[in-house]
Amino acid sequence: MRIWQADFYRSPQQDASGQILWELSICDANRSFEYAATCPQSAANSSWIAAQIQLAAGENLPNIIQVFRPQSLSLIQAAGRNLGINVEATRRTSALKQWLQEKQYTLALDKPPPAPLPENLWGEEWRFATLQAGELVDVFAQRLIPVLYMPEFLKPINLGLASTLPVPGVVIYGGRRSLRLAKWLEEAQPVALNYIAGAPDGLILEAGLADRWVVATFTDAEVAAAAKVYEQRKQQSRGLHFLLVQPDDSGMTYSGFWLLQQED
């Protein structure tokens, strides 16, 4: 499968007359392929992007184009539809981001304030948890879990983590709403779950391209201490952590499981 990463945004450069230029940047996951083209703002549309994708691809169009920037998404999606290419919104475009940084592009995205989870989804309780890296995949990969996100690049062995290293996570007991919550999270596309100190403290879910959701708030000192340990363990596990949704603490059934890692 041929997967490209692409961005279309205002270039840091201008033409000789001082006019703003827009640049299309395309690469693959290891940057063995790179393509860039610029156009004046007046020509910055999906038809121009589609034509450039065809020029870059020749007769071998990609199967998927991954896009991290919300402002680029709709135009690249329209170009993809014209060419029969699936466009995937994802923050995980590290090769492209590295290239854009080298070209002095701004990568910081405007993020909205975190919104509360819909009341009809929230579970009954939650807790912090840990699993050894060597057990993480084995415990969940073979279970019949309706929503399971365990990509190869986030498996502990592929991150070079020792099998005995504790990987932190959060468990939500959803009760009767457990499956509904898991399905909603699947659509939201979780990326990372972070502890944010404040008044009150909170757990903030980073999801989609720039979405943020308040998963929990708390003022209890013991919970805050546990949250700090959670963040410390994330640093030790190269940012790897997990989110588990299950109806109760019986361990008999699970509704959703995600491997997560911060990606800005």
UniProtKB/TrEMBL annotation:
Protein name stated in the entry: Tab2/Atab2 family RNA-binding protein
Species the sequence originates in: Amazonocrinis nigriterrae CENA67
Protein origin, superkingdom: Bacteria
Domain named RNA-binding protein Tab2-like N-terminal: residues: 3-103
GO molecular function, one term: RNA binding
RNA-binding protein Tab2/Atab2 C-terminal domain location: 106-261
